[in-house]
Amino acid sequence: MNTQKPDIRTADHAEQHLEMVGRWYMVNRDGMATLCTDRADAEAEARKADREWPRNGPHRAVRLVESPQFGDFFRLKGQRMVLCSLLRECLPVIDALMQIPGDDDSDAHLNGLMARVGDALDAIAEDKVKGGES
Fold first, then answer.
1. Distance between CA 49 and CA 131 in Å, rounded?
2. 39 vs 25, 26, 45, 81, 105, CA distance in Å?
3. Phi and psi dihedrals of 7, rounded to 5?
4. Are 47 and 28 within 8 A, CB to CB?
5. Could you give the CA distance from residue 6 to residue 27 in angstroms, rounded to a whole number?
6. How much is the pLDDT for 3?
7. Which run of H or of E encompasses 125?
8. In this structure, are residues 54 and 29 in contact, taking their beta carbons and an 8 Å threshold?
9. CA 102 to chain centre
């Protein structure tokens, strides 16, 4: 009978997609983490660490998994930052075009474009979005 615990790096997780498999860790109050084989191992490591390094406690067994909702959040936040940057780059170009003598229709179009770019920036600026949500 094999009483040795499996190595987490080589454990068979064929029944689950690898990116959705949660990993168990023992974590101290400073956020330092030790990878464990399973929940029981993480809990045992936490108890052991509480005894051996009480000043770094409390030690906890935690399971970390990727959260798709946070991936979407950061992707959308990045897209918003790029869009704001592009819109800000448009403003001086529009302003320079407005300095060139032209007809009234061109000036009206550029003034309208400047206003729409400003409105778009206001609408998507992070501090204007309720709760920082996208």
1. 38
2. 8, 9, 10, 39, 70
3. -75, 125
4. no
5. 20
6. 56
7. none
8. no
9. 47
How many Cβ atoms from other residues are within 10 Å of residue 43's Cβ? Answer: 16
Report the alpha-carbon angle 4-18-71, nearest 5: 135
DSSP letter string over 32-95?
A: -EEE-SSHHHHHHHHHHHHHH-GGGPPPEEEEE---HHHHHHHHHHHHHHHHHHHHHHHHHHHH
Q: What are phi and psi of 63, to 5 degrees?
A: -110, 125
Tokens representing 70 are 């946070």
pTM of the model: 0.42
DSSP letter string, 4-17:
SPPPTTT---TTS-
| pLDDT tens, residue by residue, 45-68 | 999 999 998 988 889 999 887 777
pLDDT digits (tens, 9 = 90+) for 41-50: 999 999 999 9
Output the pLDDT for position 100.
Answer: 87
Q: What is the largest CA-CA distance in the chain?
A: 90
Number of Cβ atoms within 10 Å of the Cβ of 45? 20
